[in-house]
């Protein structure tokens, strides 16, 4: 097939998307893909490409289906597993311990909290429960997105106060519950064993996403409180949740995306709209889910200052999922976002192909089921490397290589020698995820994504909002009622969340 694809022209947007993706799968590397292709609503049939999906759209509204290929005509690439092993194990070319303490790593334009806001967004968009990183040639519709591919805060609200009544206060059916007797204001709701009682259990994966989840609960509750004089019953929840969603979507559209794709590409997306994402389609591109949005892994710092008395800690030392969170570990958000407090927040790590060392040797408890005889019953180290797992996704979904996408977009094509791939690398091209990280470093000093990564990430988030008939973009002229000057930021949400105390 040709590596070149014409841009898909759409109308301009009106008005002006574990750490990200832990994934599933438990077989050894030799397992071959199997099973029928799963179509929407259980129909068995061929995969849906972005081109064929276009024909399914029309007057009846958006298509809701599985993942799809944003670039269905591009040549796929599969890489030698031993090459991936040499690239991604501790002490190898992707270990940031090789940089030394004198190399600056803090991003001056993206503060540390955006890493975890990004993970929170991921949990609102995708929940891949079927893919297997040992498979080869998996088609996007062979795995299902188990949640709605929209920014609807389903991870906060679950299925709402009727079907998931356990999340809500029975007094009004609209206020979300949180906290416990010994930590009433600093943790999510938990059962007696410590399991989080929340709309998406993945939001208890680490302490920062847990605390962001709590902040969204508190913001919602403040909106409920403000509306309680005018609405009641089901109407109170419906009105409050819509206002919260629109403020949240405003943050994603006006702040989050802009920071990660840069002002130039952001302006093009606003003025021209997405060029490669099918209009009216509610799906997530596999190039986003399995590669580009895993950008967040590269922004994780080696250590974090959580609050004034809790600092220099690594992400996996902070909080074990499914356990009670102690009050002294409550996140002080001024260390993570610019809250106007006079405190300079920590920066996210600059984009590059170097990852925090602990991400290349994940705790075995987080990665069960990969015992390997060669390693005396212990997991294959490749499975304990987050970078290794990401690159196995390249092979699973036979994604195009980074250079292949760059050529299709008509942008700079970086050679392997520029990308820092090790000697002996057995291919003339680079995996898409790896390429996107290094492209950001080469094109933009690691401050934001380059043309390939920025295009995939930016178009996905813009299309998620543009193609959702319930998003704030479809209510032309809407402006936030919280915040100031017609704007609303994550800092505004956190200030309101901290101001609200459970009564």
Helices and strands in order:
Layout: H1 50-54, E1 63-64, H2 81-88, E2 106-111, H3 113-125, H4 154-157, H5 160-163, H6 207-227, H7 233-261, H8 263-272, E3 281-282, H9 286-289, H10 315-318, E4 347-349, H11 386-396, H12 402-409, H13 416-419, H14 432-444, H15 451-466, H16 490-499
Protein name: Animal haem peroxidase
Keywords: Glycoprotein, Oxidoreductase, Peroxidase, Secreted
GO molecular function, one term: heme binding
Rg value: 22 Å
**Average pLDDT across residues?**
85
| Subunit organisation of the chains | single chain
Lateral strand order in the biggest sheet: 1-3
* β-sheet strand percentage: under 5%
Q: Which consecutive residue ranges, at least 5 long each, have pLDDT under 50? A: 1-17, 19-60
Which secondary-structure class do the elements indicate?
mainly alpha
The residue fraction in helices comes out at 25-40%
Query: So how many helices?
Result: 16
First-residue to last-residue Cα separation: 63 Å
Return the string of H and E elements. HEHEHHHHHHEHHEHHHHHH
Number of strands: 4
- Characterize the largest beta sheet: strand count, sense, and whether it forms a barrel: 2 strands, parallel
Coarse shape: globular
Pfam families: An_peroxidase
Subcellular location: Secreted
GO cellular component, one term: extracellular region
GO molecular function, one term: heme binding
Can you describe what's shown?
It holds the Pfam family An_peroxidase. It is found in: Secreted. Helices cover 33% and strands 3% of the residues. The protein is an all-alpha fold and 503 residues long. It has a domain at 40-162 and 273-470. The strands form two sheets. The chain has a two-stranded parallel ribbon with strand order 1-3. Strands 2-4 form a two-stranded antiparallel sheet. Helix 2 (81-88) packs antiparallel against helix 11 (386-396), helix 3 packs across helix 6 and helix 7 packs antiparallel against helix 15 (451-466). It is globular. Residues 1-17 and 19-60 have low confidence and may be disordered.
């Amino acid at each position: 097939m040709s590596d070149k694809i014409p841009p898909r022209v759409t109308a301009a947007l009106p008005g002006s998307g574990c750490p990200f993706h832990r994934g599933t799968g438990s077989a050894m590397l030799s397992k071959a893909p199997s099973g029928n292709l799963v179509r929407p609503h259980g129909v068995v049939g061929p995969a849906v490409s972005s081109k064929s999906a276009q024909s399914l759209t029309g007057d009846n509204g958006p298509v809701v289906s599985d993942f799809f290929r944003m670039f269905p005509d591009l040549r796929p690439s599969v890489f030698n597993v031993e090459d991936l092993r040499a690239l991604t194990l501790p002490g190898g070319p992707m270990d940031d311990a090789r940089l030394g303490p004198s190399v600056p790593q803090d991003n001056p334009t993206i503060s540390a909290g955006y890493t975890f806001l990004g993970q929170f967004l991921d949990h609102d968009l995708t929940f891949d429960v079927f893919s297997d990183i040992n498979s080869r040639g998996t088609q996007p519709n062979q795995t299902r997105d188990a949640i709605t591919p929209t920014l609807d805060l389903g991870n906060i609200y679950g299925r709402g106060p009727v079907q998931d009544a356990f999340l809500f206060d029975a007094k009004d059916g609209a206020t979300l519950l949180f906290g416990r007797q010994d930590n009433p204001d600093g943790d999510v709701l938990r059962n007696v064993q410590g399991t989080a009682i929340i709309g998406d259990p993945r939001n208890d994966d680490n302490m920062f996403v847990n605390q962001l989840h709590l902040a969204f609960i508190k913001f919602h509750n403040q909106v409920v409180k403000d509306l309680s004089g005018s609405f009641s019953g089901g109407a109170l929840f419906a009105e409050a949740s819509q206002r919260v969603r629109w403020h949240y979507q405003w943050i994603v559209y006006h702040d989050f995306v802009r920071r990660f794709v840069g002002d130039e590409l952001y302006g093009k997306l606003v003025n021209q709209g997405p060029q490669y994402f099918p209009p009216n389609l509610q799906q997530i591109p596999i190039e986003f889910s399995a590669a580009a949005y895993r950008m967040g892994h590269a922004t994780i710092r080696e250590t974090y200052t959580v609050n004034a008395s809790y600092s220099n800690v690594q992400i996996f030392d902070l909080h074990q999922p499914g356990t009670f969170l102690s009050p002294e570990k409550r996140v002080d958000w001024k260390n993570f976002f610019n809250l106007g407090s006079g405190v300079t927040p920590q920066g996210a790590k600059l984009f590059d192909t170097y990852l925090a060392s602990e991400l290349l040797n994940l705790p075995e408890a987080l990665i069960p089921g990969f015992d390997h005889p060669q390693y005396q019953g212990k997991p294959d180290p490749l499975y304990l490397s987050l970078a290794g797992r990401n690159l196995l996704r390249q092979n699973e979904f036979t994604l195009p290589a980074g250079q292949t996408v760059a050529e299709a977009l008509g942008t700079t094509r970086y050679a392997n020698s520029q990308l820092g791939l090790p000697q002996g690398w057995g291919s003339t091209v680079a995996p898409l995820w790896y390429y996107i990280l290094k492209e950001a470093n080469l094109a933009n000093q690691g401050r934001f994504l380059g043309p390939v990564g920025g295009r995939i990430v930016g178009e996905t988030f813009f299309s998620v909002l543009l193609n959702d008939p319930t998003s704030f973009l479809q209510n032309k002229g809407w402006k936030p009622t919280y915040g100031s000057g017609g704007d609303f930021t994550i800092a505004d949400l956190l200030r309101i969340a901290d101001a609200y105390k459970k009564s």
